[in-house]
Structures are given as structure tokens and as C-alpha cells.
Predict the structure of Vacuole membrane protein 1-like.
Amino acid sequence: MEANGASCEQPQKRTGARDKQNGKSADLSIRERRQKDKEERLSLVLWRRPATTLHYFLLETIIKLKEWTLKLWQRRGAVFLFLLLCCVFSIAYYTEGRHQQYVQYLEVKFLWCAYWVGLGILSSVGLGTGLHTFLLYLGPHIASVTLAAYECGSTDFPEPPYPDQIVCPEGETVEGSISLFSIMSKVRLEAFMWGAGTAIGELPPYFMARAARQSGADPDDDDYEEFEEMLEKAEGAQDFVTRAKLGVQHMVQKVGFFGIMACASIPNPLFDLAGITCGHFLVPFWTFFGATLIGKAIIKMHIQKLFVIITFSIHIVEQMVSLIGSVPKVGPSLQKPFSQYLEAQRSKLHHAGGSAPADDNWLSWVFEKVVLVMVAYFVISIINSMAQSYAKRRQQLRHSEEKTK
């Protein structure tokens, strides 16, 4: 009897081992297929396949417009209320009366805040890329206000939104009346709004992962697939990047609100992973968004603001220009345009409508070209990303048809 029992157990073990091996082979084939599909999508870029990329981009744009139209129709009550409020504000805007001064004030403030919130969202979302709007817009804006405050000896120039040129106020100024805190107060509104925009831009990964976890379906996002693979191989992780991602994931999962706020408060390229983690583990929306808003719009923005203000304080700038001049051979030739640029900016502050000579303004020309290149790269990246998104739709449709056959 024992021999018969042993002989029965052996085929069962072999069958179990075979099933396990088949399961591993199936998982391997799925991963190989995903990798192949991913490589095929990544090859879909404008400089390699321009016609196909543009064609897929247009098709994805049409699909997105249909999806957004359907979502708006499903929320037609909120849309109707929004349109009604717009009508009320339009009537108030075009009707003459004493209320016009308040309407105009609210209009100016709203457009100013919306401008910085929009730049923050662009910096954070970017449909797979990002426009570095802090380096291109907010950082230079804080720097210009800092230089103006030290040159004018006051922060009493016009309230934001500023005119085309910041002009020093007339009259005598008190020496030494400028402090870090007065400059920080001057740029607080635009800095907070930009930070709030970056916090809003972190919501798509959170909602994507949350919807995927609740529905049990495979999400249409490569970052989520990478997140799941990272969780599978968490124990044997050795490389720095994987351990850093795991550190973010553990901090968010275990510490909760304060872990999310800590991750959002420092320059953190892995914060998308924090949003995916919060969505995957069904962290409440206001816990995630509240911590992200405090971290990005208050703590992180004060750190970045302080860094820019200290860097562009007038005595530090003058020391930097003098250090450039001390560079052997090329120093004096490099120092001259920087000195001329600073003098031109100072003259602008004291004379409304002043401008730098065309020959000495090559730094502004270079900066404008850098902005144009960054914006062009941003637009091209969006086109590539949307084309790749449509290619992924086609791949998923093909795989689902293969399964049904």
C-alpha cells in the first residue's frame, strides 16, 4: 500500500512541477511581449517615422476629444452650473456701474493666478514629458524682482501682475530696508500658485492607479506596470534606482500623510511613484492632495524661492561677475556682456520704457532661443506621447482579438 501511495505521489509532483514550469513560461512570454510592444511604441517618434507619428497623433486627439465630450455630458449638471456662473460674470463684466473696479481687480488677479497655475501644471504633467517652467519662467521672475528690489531699495513697485517693465518708485529710499522676507512676500502669490499647479499635475497618476485597483483591470500606463514589477522583485533589489523607488513607496505607504508631504517637499523626480502608490493602496484623495499641496506649494516653494533670492542678491551677483573676469584669457571677454546686461537692466528700472542696446543684448537673445527650443521640444514630446498612446490602443485591441480566437 505504501509503495502504491508513493507511486501515486510521484506523478502528482511531476504534474505540479510541470504546471509551475508552464506558468513561469507563460509569465515570461507575457513579459517578452510587453517588452516588444514597448520597444515598438518607443520607436514611434517624429524624427524616425514622421508620417505615422502625425497620423496616430491626430487619431488619438480625436479619441481624446470624444472621451472628454462624453465625460462632460455625463456631468452636464456641473457644466450647466459653470456656464450659468460664466453668464452672470459676463453680465457683471459688461454692465456699467460702481462694481466695475472690483470686477476689473478680480479679473486681473484671476488671470495672473491662472497663468502661474497653468505653468505649474505644464511642469508636472506634460503628457509624458515636462516643460521646466520654473527654470524658464518662475525662477527668472523671482530673480528679476530680487534685482529690482535691491536696486530700487524698495519693493513698492507695482503689485502683481506687473507691467511689462518694473520701474522703481520715485522718491528717496531707506538704505538697508530690503530683506529676504520682504522679497519673499513680494513673490509669494505667483510662487504659491505655481506650486499649486504642480500639485494638481500630480493627480493623473493617482487617479489612474486608484481606478485600476478598484476595477481590477490592467491600467493603460507603463509607469504602473513598472510599479507592479518593482513590487514583485522588491526583496532582491540591489540597484540604487530600485531601492530609491522602494524607499519612496515604503515611506508613502507606512508614514501616510507626513510621508507624502516629505516626498513632495524636496526636488523628487520619483514623486510620480508616490502618486501611483497612493492610488494603488487607496489612500483617500484629500490625504494625498492635501499633503502634496502643502509639500509643493508651501514647503518646497519657500526653499526654491529662498535659493533664487539668495543667488541673485546684488552683492552675490557682483561677486559672480568679478569672478568671471578673473578667469584666465577668456574671463574679460565673458565679463563684459554680463556687466553690460546688468547695467541695462538697472537703467530699465529707473526709466520707464528703457531698453538695452541691440548690440549688447545677446544674453536676452540667447535666453529667448533657449525658451523657444524648450517649448518646441515640449510640443514634439506631446505629439510623440499621444502617438504612442494610440499605438498602445492598437496593440491592446490586437491582443484581445487574439485571446478571443
